[in-house]
Structure formats: C-alpha cells, structure tokens
C-alpha cells in the first residue's frame, strides 16, 4: 500500500488546512519534552511567529535511562492542547504504549511513532486503527525497506495518513548523535507515494549543525522539517544540546525560504 506501484500520485496528508507532501515545506517545531505550561506557550508563540505550522512536544518520553525525565503524560497533553488554543497551531506528540493510543489521539492532531517503536507492530496496528495522521520516524538502525514495511502495518489497519520522518541512523560515526541519511529522501520518493520530512535535531544531536542540515534536507526534496526549539536550552530537561533558541530558529526559517523556492 505504501508503494508507488499501486498509487502513482504523491499522498498529501492533510492536517486541518495544512498539507504535508504538497508544494510547501511544512515546519514542525517545539521543545523535546513538555516541561510546564509557561515555557511551552512561550516557545509555541515564538515558533509560530517565525513561521512554524505545527507544534511538537513530548508528553510520553522514551528515555534511555529509567531515571531520566519521562514526561508529564496526560498533564503534558493538556498543556499541548493549551498551546494549540493559544496559537491556533496543530499539535503532534509521541505515543509509546498501545494502552495510551486512544488518550493521545483524543488530544492531538498528529500521533508520532518514535524511532524506538518503529517496529512495535502492535503499536503500529493500534495507530492504524485511528484515522489520525501518523508521523512515523525511521528506526535507529532500520533500512528504508523496513521503515516502509512499518508504514505498511499502519496502512493495512486502515490509516493511509502517514508522514515518514528521517531522523538519522546509527553508523560508526560518533561526531554526530546519529548520521543523517539524506539519500532516504529521493529513495523514498522513488519507491513510495508517502510524504517524507526530516528531523535534523535528533539526526545531529547538536544545535549548531541543525541549520545546515535543515537547508540540505529541503534542497534534497524533503516535504518538511521537525526541529527542536527551547527558550532556554541549558535548562531543558531533555535534548537541550540539540535545541535551537527561538531567535536562531527564526533566523533559520528566513534562510530556508530561498532554498525552498529553488527546489
Ligand atoms: C523525539 O522526537 O522527541 C524523539 C524521541 O525522537 P526519536 O524517536 O527520533 O529519537
Ligand atoms: Mn528529543
């Protein structure tokens, strides 16, 4: 179902009046995790002003250490909804457990499946049973074919509204958190009709590298970007080192315009 053989025209995933996979590059931005309402709304207003269309933020965080901040759970979802209320933006958050799919779907506009759950087939099936758009991240060490097969699980359950997200893969290189695979963009476009966006924040792990790779992703044909932004990265409870300050994010949004026009 994800292949080009059955469907030749690109899929455009509609989130309200936002179209992902069309002519425009859609930018999703916000903090890694939702920490409190004040910081979240403040950041939300700033990324909106800079031109982001969709707000991100984690309420259920899949952390490497069980002792790290795990997210505010339903309280985080409530804060997200307040962010949507305050800005008029759409919202996306990750779900990590089949038991929470209904709850998360009741709050957000897009459900995110994180890299660590790309092959959690029961979870894929469960989000496939909803009609909500799904942001499907590429697994830490997943091939493009495995990733497309994961999207197949969601589609086979009845939900065709999938946005693929390249977020860097594990390689031998340690200079960046992951290695961004920009080749995935033309390869996916060749074999699938699904839209593909890029997450330069998790791909690089370093805010300084985010602008260059964002522009590279757009130049390579990405349908959008998902970028971590935090008003005070040093104080962030999660992924501060890869988060852009709002002012740097606004500057990047300006620099992206001519790149997007040129593709
Ligand atoms: C995230 O987007 O916050 C996240 C955890 O990303 P990934 O699943 O790509 O590591
Ligand atoms: Mn993160």
UniProtKB/TrEMBL annotation:
<protein>
    <submittedName>
        <fullName>3-deoxy-D-arabinoheptulosonate-7-phosphate synthase</fullName>
    </submittedName>
</protein>
<dbReference type="GO" id="GO:0009073">
    <property type="term" value="P:aromatic amino acid family biosynthetic process"/>
</dbReference>
<dbReference type="GO" id="GO:0016832">
    <property type="term" value="F:aldehyde-lyase activity"/>
</dbReference>
<feature type="domain" description="DAHP synthetase I/KDSA">
    <location>
        <begin position="15"/>
        <end position="257"/>
    </location>
</feature>
<keyword id="KW-0808">Transferase</keyword>
<dbReference type="GO" id="GO:0016740">
    <property type="term" value="F:transferase activity"/>
</dbReference>
């Amino acid at each position: 179902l994800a292949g080009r053989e059955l469907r030749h025209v690109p899929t455009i995933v509609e989130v309200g009046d936002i179209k992902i996979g069309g002519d425009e590059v859609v930018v999703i931005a916000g903090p890694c995790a939702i920490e409190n309402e004040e910081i979240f709304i403040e950041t939300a207003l700033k990324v909106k002003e800079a031109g982001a269309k969709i707000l991100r933020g984690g309420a259920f965080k899949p952390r490497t250490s069980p002792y790290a901040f795990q997210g505010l759970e339903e309280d985080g979802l409530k804060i997200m909804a307040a962010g949507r209320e305050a800005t008029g933006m759409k919202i996306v958050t990750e779900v990590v457990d089949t038991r929470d799919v209904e709850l998360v779907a009741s709050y957000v506009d897009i459900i995110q499946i994180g890299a660590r759950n790309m092959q959690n087939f029961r979870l894929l099936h469960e989000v496939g049973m909803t009609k909500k758009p799904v942001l499907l991240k590429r697994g830490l060490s997943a091939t493009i074919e495995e990733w497309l097969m994961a999207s197949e699980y969601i589609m086979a359950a009845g939900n065709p509204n999938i946005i693929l997200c390249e977020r860097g893969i594990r390689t031998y290189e340690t200079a960046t958190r992951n290695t961004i695979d920009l080749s995935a963009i033309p390869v996916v476009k060749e074999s699938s009709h699904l839209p593909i966006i890029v997450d330069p924040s998790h791909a690089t792990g370093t805010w300084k590298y985010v602008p260059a790779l964002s522009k590279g992703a757009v130049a390579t044909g990405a349908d959008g970007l998902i970028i971590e932004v935090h008003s005070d990265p040093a104080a962030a409870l999660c992924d501060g080192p890869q988060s852009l300050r709002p002012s740097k994010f606004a500057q990047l949004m300006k620099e992206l315009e001519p790149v997007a026009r040129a593709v």
